[in-house]
Amino acid sequence: MDKKPLTYAQLLETNNIMQVLGDETYFLCVTRTVQESKLFPVSSYMLLSYLNAFYRYPTLLRKIEAKMPAEKIADRVRNMNSKIQAIGTGWCMIGFYLLGREMLINMGMIRPTDAADDVIYVLDFWKRYQLGWHRNDGHITSKEAGHRAQILPERRIQVFHADLHPCVDGDALHTAAVKFTAAVSQYAFLVACESRISMSNHGPYNLGDGRELLVRDFFDLGEGDLPWLDGVASDIPHSRLTVTTAVKDTHFYLVDDWGSFDSRPEYKSENLCGVGLYTSDELSETHIPVGMGSREELTETFERYGKIMRDTTAKLWQRIAGYTRDQMLDAGSLTYYAVIKDFAHVAGVYEHDEWMKIDERANRFRGLFNDEYSNEVLGAMLVPLTLPSAQCHEYTMMHHANTARRVYTPLSYSLLNGDDYVGSVGDGIKPGMTFLPPKVDRYRTTQGVMTLAEFNQRAANFTPQLCADKFRFLDDTWVKYHYKTPLANELYCLEQQYSRKLKGKGAGLLRDDIVALTDKI
Amino acid sequence: MAKLFVDMDKYSEGEGPPIVAAFHSALKDLVRKKVDESGGNWREFVFGKAETMITAADIAAVERKVLDSGYRYQCSASISLTERPDAYKPLAGAGSTPANFSFEHADAIVVAADATDREQRGQGDNVVKHPVNVTGIARYYHSANDVMRSLTEGVPPDTIAVIEDSGGTLTAPILEQFKAVICAGGTVRSHLGILTREYGLPCLMNAKVSGIYEGDLVELEVTGHAKTTEAYQQGKEMSVRIWKHIKPN
């Protein structure tokens, strides 16, 4: 196949993405967290995952796009709960890939120009996906939106808003919701091997009267892709859960590309004033309410699910505490590397060995990743940026730090002068390995528990009506000028089909109309 | 010897931290050697011959060489030390916590007892402001073994857990049973900080303490301000106090 020559525009755009991501990487690392664990060898598994991403993402993304383009996947994902949002795609996807590249540059294993075709492709896929995911707020990242993620269209926000069950500090629903959120967050950290990538938040959405809606998504909770959940998570009733939370007197001024939030004043559970619970996935029409029939039913559901989460946490913790270091390393690195695996689920092309194995090219480095080297090199790559590849000319003043540093190495424009490079790590997936037990062929979905083959087949053959060609491009701008048309009514009624308050109400409602319909205490 | 592309670097100030420098220098030597052995054609080497010529054993030997020099690695996860006791330095406080063990931070602020017999023994970053201070019994949780013990026997009442690990998984199955947490690492945005906020548990992160022993009665000034993102970004001090209640002579 003839290879198209690189263009100046491609390089400019690729380098822009890298630089902006690098600036935000530094900001997130300085302000948000120090990640460590006495249980998991966290830094070690991160490094292994970065290399796995570098060697495998280009091939896997090309395979996915052969079925469905990135921007179309984004349209599907806005319609459901999926891991491919902030944090998974907002930062991790290209952060992991580029950190793998950076590691290899600093080890002398590759030149900064090697794999240039892959780098350009992976970042272009990411750009198209992100623009699609952020279509409604018109940005490419939450950072660009001023640390805000207003992902949903009006029709979905209205359903979430109308169906909220009100609660006040100390009542049974409030207590149950707060305890459940703590329990599911705790469980999600353990499922994700001490990382925050099994949960995310988007919003805020303005509910009026000093209230904001924060949408809290949890994923990979039940038996499915992650082998360490086989058996222990069999009681988890839904693999993906969305908790809608209305919060009063609190402004979420930061909802970032790691899916975490910050508020003024600080978030306190006593300000939680409304909640809802949903599930959804590649096989659901849209978000399906869970236990939402009444306040009492939702209270009981939160209590019951909270207990299941706590019990499963204890069982999973004991399983993981009995793992060898190599097994912990695999579980952590596969959690990280496979953070974008839901692309393959949406396209119906998910293969276990492609997403849950360590590529032999990456696995060569396993013996290097003792705790100390891993901690030190990870720190050096992020803050304070002391590896050679991060060091720039002395006049440089890096964003947020004013130092002569950068996080990711750009592609030199000298490539356009014919500088030598090898474009790709190569087509095709190389064999992989893992120390984890074999995967049980059991995948919990909104349509029941099924085998992977069935899951893939159903995903490949299913298009939610809201994502069909008839409706796909009918955005809020179109609704603004067509809300009285039968087509707009049909669009909204599809979204409202499971709604307790809005079923059949159509496209004409404004926020005050929704407020009037909501339950009051 | 082959010359690598990155061998010419105008702005490099070195290979980074010492252990990284040792590993990366050795890896670069390995690459140079293998490039030579492959015939010197980088295009054929980088994503081709290198994949078979640079083996897992070659790379593991880089790590082993440092160990053979007498160096011992700093451990983070207990499992690393358990599986390779010859490769890691012992972990402070690992195993059961002796009565005379305390985290000792050089920056801990220690102030003599006040009128209510409270002796300040350190400070930490408050995760959430609470209406009243919290008082309880200090108990150390260093490892999975400590957690397993409490999982079987239950967490003693009024436990204020003293933990080095700012992660959210070590204490996952018992966290909810603590009265409060003193964490000697992380920030209020670390996973443990996030979880204690969700549970409504008083928690101080990034704590610097001295002379707090197993069984001490301690009080955390969680009525103080929660540390903000801006304070971290600007390096602004915003800690609250940790006291030990002492018995009057």
Description of the structure:
The complex is a heterodimer of chains A (521) and B (249). Chain A has 521 residues and is an alpha+beta fold. Chain A has a domain at 8-144 and 325-433. Chain A is 44% helix and 11% strand. Chain A has 18 helices and twelve strands. In chain A, strands 1, 2, 3, 4, 7 and 8 form a six-stranded antiparallel beta sheet that branches. In chain A, helix 2 (42-67) packs across helix 4 (88-106) and helix 2 packs across helix 13. Chain B has two domains: 5-71, no CATH class; 110-245, Glucose Oxidase, domain 1 (3-Layer(bba) Sandwich). In chain B, strands 2-6-5-4-3-7-8 form a seven-stranded mixed beta barrel. In chain B, a hairpin with a 6-residue loop joins strand 1 (110-111) and strand 2. The longest helix of chain B has 21 residues, at 18-38. At the A-B interface, helix 1, helix 2, helix 7, helix 8 and helix 12 of A face helix 1, helix 2, helix 3, helix 4 and helix 5 of B.
Secondary structure layout plus pairing:
The complex is a heterodimer of chains A (521) and B (249).
Chain A: H1 8-32, H2 42-67, H3 70-77, H4 88-106, H5 116-133, H6 154-162, E1 165-166, H7 172-191, E2 199-208, E3 211-218, E4 241-248, E5 251-255, E6 261-264, E7 272-279, E8 288-289, H8 295-321, H9 325-337, H10 342-347, H11 352-355, E9 358-359, H12 360-363, H13 371-382, E10 432-433, E11 443-445, E12 448-450, H14 452-461, H15 469-472, H16 476-482, H17 486-495, H18 511-517
Chain B: H1 18-38, H2 42-53, H3 56-68, H4 78-83, E1 110-111, E2 118-126, E3 134-141, H5 144-153, E4 159-163, E5 180-183, H6 191-199, E6 203-209, E7 217-220, H7 229-233, E8 240-245
Parallel strand pairs in B: 3-4, 4-5, 5-6
Antiparallel strand pairs in B: 1-2, 2-6, 2-8, 3-7, 7-8
Helix pairs in contact in B: 1-2, 1-3
In brief:
The complex is a heterodimer of chains A (521) and B (249). Chain A is α+β, with helices and mostly antiparallel strands and 521 residues long.
